[in-house]
From TrEMBL:
Cofactors: Mg(2+)
Species of provenance: Dillenia turbinata
Name of the protein described by the UniProt record: Fructose-1,6-bisphosphatase, cytosolic
Residues in Fructose-1-6-bisphosphatase class I N-terminal domain copies: 11-197
Subcellular location: Cytoplasm
Length: 337
């Protein structure tokens, strides 16, 4: 039985990646080492997020020792940066928390570039809403000095992407380019165990996920799509609106239940709000690997070539058929122009 297998044949995330790695003759285990350091960061954040409320409650936060308590996203960023540098497998780090990219010291340099948001949605910590770490990984293709050009690549060049959601359980969803798998942290073992093998997103969903508060600023295709979700003009089943306001939580639900997540452009933010390198690309990579798709309003999200490391893009991602509906509406607008 599966349960027995879990008990005795523990498919940990490390073992899973080693299996994957063995399929690539040229691999030297570097990716496994890199991933283990990302996993270490996720375990730290999981433990800290779970204590955050308690820390505030019983005054563990900075007051007692006078030192200003670091905000959890700043602390998480420091942990990830130190873990990634100490792995000896990275050469460039792009973090949502750091204005500039980190170029790793030559003595500790490896072949991977990691773009990450250490604690996305952290404004939701105080009310206990799930938040997460999002990451995408490029491999440097040359032996020369790393430059920003090595991370300003289209998302389709990523060789892996994933997120870790800190919620009722700590779930790490990962793709290394051959499907999507979910691993849940077993705190008694301190290991991420395979719990969601080969995740496939439903081809069509019944949920749309968008911040309706921005409706007055939407462009016509987005407004038309949302209108259609609410006031059905055919016999299609009614849809539900689910919007948590924490990207990792909204995307995780979309991946497992189907539907579409939208953060469109609007008059106030012509490029939307979400960041290309460490929000849009990793989530788009996962959606495509799970059989869904991701669109910017103009093109396939993974074809976008970012010009700066904190660039934003509108994003529509999720069930294949749902995103197709949006693409048709944007194509119709294109033809009118
Ligand atoms: P809004 C959280 O701040 C975040 O970066 C994402 O996690 C989330 O999807 C989005 O912003 C929510 O933005 O404008 O709807 O509050």
């Amino acid at each position: 039985h599966a349960a027995d297998a879990h008990r005795t044949d523990l498919m940990t995330i490390t073992r899973y990646v080693l299996n994957e790695q063995s399929k690539h003759a040229e691999s030297r285990g570097d990716f496994t080492i890199l991933l283990n350091h990302i996993v270490l960061g996720c375990k730290f954040v999981c433990s800290s997020v779970n204590k955050a409320g308690l820390a505030k409650l019983i005054g563990l936060a900075g007051e007692t020792n006078g030192e200003e308590q670091k905000k959890l996203d700043v602390l998480s960023n420091e942990v990830f940066v130190k873990a990634l540098v100490s792995s000896g497998r990275t050469c460039i780090l792009v973090s949502e928390e750091d204005e500039e990219a980190t170029f790793v010291d030559p003595a500790k340099r490896g072949r991977y570039c990691v773009c990450f948001d250490p604690l996305d949605g952290s404004s939701n910590i105080d009310c206990g809403v799930s938040i997460g770490t999002i990451f995408g990984i490029y491999m440097i293709k040359h032996d020369g000095e790393p430059t920003l050009a090595d991370v300003l690549q289209p998302g389709k060049n990523m060789l892996a992407a994933g997120y870790c959601m800190y919620g009722s359980s700590c779930t790490l969803v990962l793709s290394t380019g051959s499907g999507v798998n979910g691993f849940t942290l077993d705190p008694s073992l301190g290991e991420f165990i395979l719990t969601h093998p080969n995740i496939k997103i439903p081809k069509k969903g019944k949920i749309y996920s968008v911040n309706e508060g921005n409706a007055k600023n939407w462009d016509e295709p987005t407004a038309k799509f949302v209108e259609k979700c609410k006031f059905l003009n055919d016999s299609s089943p009614p849809r539900s609106l689910r919007y948590i306001g924490s990207m990792v939580a909204d995307v995780h639900r979309t991946l497992l239940y189907g539907g579409i997540f939208l953060y469109p452009a609007d008059k106030k933010s012509p490029n939307g709000k979400l960041r290309v390198l460490y929000e849009v690309f990793p989530m788009s990579f996962l959606m495509e690997q799970a059989g869904g798709q991701a669109f910017t309003g103009k093109q396939r999200a993974l074809d976008l070539v970012p010009k700066t490391i904190h660039e934003r893009s509108p994003i529509f991602l999720g069930s294949y058929d749902d995103v197709e509906e949006i693409k048709v509406l944007y194509a119709a607008q294109e033809n009118k122009e």
